[in-house]
Amino acid sequence: MTEPNIAFVANLLADPSRAAMCLSLAGGEARPAGELAARAGISAQTASNHLAKLIAGRLLRVERQGRWRYYRLAGADVGHAVEALAVVAPPLPQALAVDGMAAAARRLKNARTCYSHLAGRLGVALADALIAERWLEDDGRCYRLTPAGTRSLCALGIDVVVRDAPARRCLDWTERRPHVAGPVGTALAKVALDRGWVRRLRGTRAVAVTPPGRMELKKVFNLRWEEKP
């Protein structure tokens, strides 16, 4: 078996502008080139060149809606890789910070999406609650869905197909502890968004827990949630 060419991917993400664009897409959303250029602090033409390289390298894909093009990560595996790199990466130099970055960082730390599941303090708290309520078992390597967890998910309208890994541990880059990924994590995030328990914050992958959501998180998962200022 040929070993994977990690250096190829590392080279693509070694450029700060390309890395910034990939990180801004790590929540699973699709964004136009102009917005990605602004996130990276580069011109539209430079962004176009970088995006072409990321698409050729199969890290991004492009979707067309009429005359507009939107870019997103090529798949969940890319999102997990970006999140994993963020765990070991040092923070950007303060000189590169822009107005509002501290507040934006706090929002991301509190609650965000990690590709298709919930992350940050909220995601880790949800994982803890699922284990405490015995929906999941954690053996230190992976999560296992319990019979009680399967019944509880079905009660929420989530029909989980039992696979080898219906719930996966994903190391959270801000909390340094795992949150729930895989089919279970994706389904729970969809329920939370569809029912208005959390809402996306415009222009970012951060999310905010709504007042009704705070009550439902307590009722359904016994999760007590307070945002940190």
What report would you give on this structure?
With 229 residues, the protein is an alpha+beta fold. It folds into two domains: 6-89, Arc Repressor Mutant, subunit A, CATH 1.10.10.10; 104-221, no CATH class. It has ten helices and eleven strands. The protein has a three-stranded antiparallel β-sheet with strand order 1-3-2. A hairpin with a 2-residue loop joins strand 4 and strand 5 (117-119). Helix 2 (16-24) crosses helix 3 (33-40). The longest helix is centred in the N-terminal third of the chain and has 13 residues, at 44-56.
Summed up, what is this model?
Helix content is 47%, strand content 17%. By secondary structure, the protein is α+β, with helices and mostly antiparallel strands.
List the helices and strands and how they pair.
Blueprint: H1 6-13, H2 16-24, E1 31-32, H3 33-40, H4 44-56, E2 60-65, E3 68-73, H5 76-88, H6 101-110, E4 112-114, E5 117-119, H7 120-132, E6 136-138, E7 143-145, H8 147-155, E8 168-171, E9 178-181, H9 182-194, E10 198-200, E11 207-209, H10 211-221
Antiparallel strand pairs: 1-3, 2-3, 4-5, 6-7, 8-9, 10-11
Helix pairs in contact: 2-3, 3-4
Low-confidence stretches: 95-100
Radius of gyration (CA) equals 18 Å
Number of separate structural domains:
2
Please work out how many helical segments DSSP would assign.
10
Query: How do the strands of the widest beta sheet line up side by side?
Result: 1-3-2
Please report the total strand number as a whole number: 11
Tell me, rounded to a whole number, the average pLDDT. Answer: 86
Helix content, binned percent: 40-55%
Structural class: alpha+beta
Q: Overall 3D geometry?
A: globular
Strand content: 15-25%
**How would a crystallographer describe the biggest sheet?**
3 strands, antiparallel
How far apart lie the N and C ends? 50 Å
Order of helices and strands: HHEHHEEHHEEHEEHEEHEEH
